[in-house]
Model the fold of this input.
Amino acid sequence: MSGLVSYHAGLAAETAVAQLYARSGRSIAATRWRGSAGEIDLIARDGAEVIFIEVKKSSTHALAAEHLTRRQMDRIYASASEFLAGEPAGQGTEARFDVALVDSVGRIEILENAFAA
Done:
């Protein structure tokens, strides 16, 4: 049963993060977008920029951050490249990778351009 609870908690976290981006004036282009390399939780647009967002939920923001692995980042990069191939400017499209950390009480911390660090 805990797997199902975790799944629904993850969906709720993704929905909350999508709402936060939408409220900040960014449109949500896709949720749970699936490419051949894997899934991207959320894709938003800020003008011409595409924002790829990985949502991580845990009891604390620090624990949530620890759940992002190098392998996941590589998978997200590959899927993002596939998504960008369909954009008018292709791979030249301005893009960034954010990580949204959600704690057990639903507080959200956005790490903008997190993969660049």
Remarks:
- The chain has a mean pLDDT of 93.
